[in-house]
Design a protein that fits this description.
Elements: H1 4-18, E1 23-28, E2 49-55, E3 58-63, E4 68-72, E5 77-81, H2 94-97, E6 112-118, E7 124-128, E8 136-140, H3 147-150, H4 163-170, H5 177-182, H6 192-202, H7 215-236, H8 244-251, E9 270-274, E10 277-281, H9 283-286
Antiparallel strand pairs: 1-6, 2-3, 3-4, 4-8, 5-7, 6-7, 9-10
């Protein structure tokens, strides 16, 4: 799932390349993407992009007709610039002939569900690699009309994100820390991957409740949240959007690294079941040696 550091880098690239350009055509290839049926995406034709910003994990294309195109990338959504594939003499495209590093067939690119054509430069395609459609688009007068934006809490990337506000949503909560970090009504922009990273840096168990934390632990969690998110945004800034997902994976210390050595203590990173997914942690650094349950064991 795209999270705030990658979505911020995406928003900045889109802003730099789309600001001032007019939408010449909109092609919606999957009708379920449109969440405002009374205001379809095709109504944006002729509008010019003023700028692109981020709200939590959502994109906001501000248009000169006082409209906003809000995009939720969901669990498997992303964006790419359309590139016309060169063909050889036989008429086969490079993509069709692509092979993976081990000589097998390369994984096909995710399908484009929406394509935005502009008056100059390449088209922007919104994609979804999941087995179900998680990408969503809204045409609204104000981005806050989108429920997912209206409920957003403070963002750790914002300079004004202070410890007092953080304590208010963490301390005395009878809820697991990992769930709090991923709860957009409490802290904006964090998902499964960065919550694992934050808790590892803070040396805290993902399953302990906020109500059990002392002042020192709350302070560590606050500093880790701000530090991990802001440093990740700085690291992703300027990375081409087609490389952002790989850059995120490569930067992870514990998330997605079950079976590898913990970079801090050398113990083995383990999986555990959380909600409907799997997450990772270090038992030595975070749980005092306790092994958290993994579904099916």
């Amino acid at each position: 799932m795209p999270e705030s550091p990658e979505v911020q880098a995406l928003a900045e690239e889109l802003d730099s390349r789309l600001a001032g350009r007019m939408i010449a055509d909109v092609d919606v290839l999957e009708f379920r993407v449109t969440k405002t049926r009374a205001r379809p995406l095709t109504t944006l034709v002729g509008e010019r992009v003023v700028g692109v910003t981020r709200h939590g994990k959502l994109l906001d294309l501000d248009l000169d007709g006082s409209e906003h195109l809000v995009v939720s990338l969901g669990r498997h959504g992303w964006a790419r610039w359309r590139v016309e594939e060169p063909t050889d003499a036989a008429g086969a495209t490079d993509a069709a002939d692509a092979t993976s590093a081990d000589g097998g067939a390369a994984e096909p690119p995710p399908p484009a569900l929406v394509a935005l054509e502009f008056d100059d430069g390449p088209a922007l395609e919104l994609t979804d690699a999941g087995g179900w459609v998680s990408l969503g688009c809204w045409v609204v007068d104000d981005a806050a009309e989108v429920p997912a934006i209206a409920k957003l809490a403070s963002d750790p990337a914002d300079p004004g994100f202070g410890r007092g506000d953080f304590e208010a949503v963490v301390k005395d909560r009878r809820k697991q820390l990992k769930a709090i970090l991923q709860e957009q009504e409490s802290i904006a922009g964090i998902g499964n991957a960065y919550s694992d990273e934050i808790l590892h840096v803070a040396k805290l168990s993902p399953v302990v409740h906020g109500a059990t934390l002392d002042d020192d632990e709350v302070g560590r969690l606050h500093d880790a949240t701000v530090g991990v998110i802001r440093s990740a945004i700085d690291a992703r800034r300027g990375v081409p959007i087609h490389e952002l997902k790989a850059a995120k994976v490569a930067a992870m210390r514990v998330h997605g690294r079950a079976g590898e050595d913990c970079p801090r203590c050398g113990d083995t990173i383990l999986d555990f079941s959380f909600a409907s997914t799997t997450a990772q942690y270090c038992p030595t650094c975070q749980t005092g040696g306790e092994v958290l349950p993994l579904k099916g064991e």
